[in-house]
Amino acid sequence: MPDLPLQDRVAVVAGATRGAGRGIARMLGAAGATVYCTGRSIQGRPATPGRPETLEETAELVTAEGGRGIAVRADHTIESEVERLFARIRAEAGRLDILVNDIWGGDALTEWGTPFWELSSAKGLELLERAVHTHIITSRHGVPAMVERDTGLIVEVTDGDTFGYRGNLFYDLAKNAVVRLAYAMAGDLHAHNVTALAVTPGFLRSEAVLDHFGVSEGNWRDAIEKDEYFAESETPCFVGRAIAALAADPEVARKSGGLYSSWELAKEYGFTDVDGRRPDWGSFFLGKVREILSRDAPPDEMDLFVVRSRLYQAELDSSAASEAERLRTWLARHE
User: What are the distances in angstroms from CA 129 to CA 14, 105, 109?
Assistant: First the structure.
């Protein structure tokens, strides 16, 4: 693969202010792309309470990696702002090769531990507007530039590489909906040589997660004592390298409509995280499930959550019927 396989390519990363979006923008830049970094937080006008990151910072990081970063403030819930964004890209670049939908904005709206009949409908519907409706609007106005040229890649960023229940009704709807968006768009785009697919990171060491644990990227391992699952975490650049590898793959159309993980794509394309590690969240998670099932000590709430999560996944896999039955039996004894 050339040193700059995405040189002369134009990308939009919607939701690039922080987290996975920032890592994706950076790694597209490292592959040589021009990256329009979009979102709501700009210098002097933060949009997320308590978070200092800005689009300008992301664009500077893209440029520092070797690409060209361009910060554009756009509220993706407002269709007229999205239309203006893509009109500007047409005028300035004349093309669009990569569109990454990573808009989220649902952390403060997700009511973990609450059954669906007790959830706030208002919060849930706002979450869906931010995390799903925005993706539809953005693709609606970005994709015509790809269809005109019969080439392009659309990436929907989700959480989880299965359709198993994710523990909260609205969160589950949002994260599964964007996977279905990729699948549906792939169907409509089949005749136009434009690829649409979904990608998930593993346990992401975002800025907010590092702050939550009171660590930095330099000493993140100190937080493993607080959460053993953090041991297999990954930087936002890991999923960024996954998407850069997909964008550089001349055969990426074979993956259209599918759901892929950062850890499996790392094995396929041979990349590592920026710290030299190659986290494998999928194998790590299954290992933790086996460990919990083999313990003699009573499970804690996290153990129960993990086993339930695996059961939701196994129930959707016909080849895992016997495992699902073992998990049900274990949960019946401990819940």
Answer: 15, 10, 11
Q: Please tell me the distance from the alpha carbon of residue 201 to that of residue 180, in angstroms, as a whole number.
A: 17
Look at 247 and 1; give whichever has higher pLDDT. 247
CA separation (Å) from 78 to 48, 56, 81, 234? 17, 21, 6, 32
Question: How big is the CA angle at 280 (ends 279 and 285), to the nearest 5 degrees?
Answer: 125
The share of the chain scoring above pLDDT 70, in percent, equals: 99
Of these residues, 36, 165, 171, 312, which one is catalytic? 171
Q: What's the token pair of residue 22? A: 């920032």
Angle, helix 262-269 to helix 236-248, in steps of 10 degrees: 50
**The token pair that represents 268 in the structure block:** 């396929």
171 is catalytic: yes
C-alpha dihedral over 223, 228, 231, 232, to 10 degrees? -140
Residues in the chain: 335
Residue 2: predicted pLDDT: 56
Q: Whole-angstrom Cα distance, residue 292 to residue 281? A: 16
Q: What is the pLDDT of residues 209-236, one digit of tens each?
A: 999 999 999 999 999 999 999 999 999 9
Measured distance CA(38)–CA(55) in Å, rounded: 7
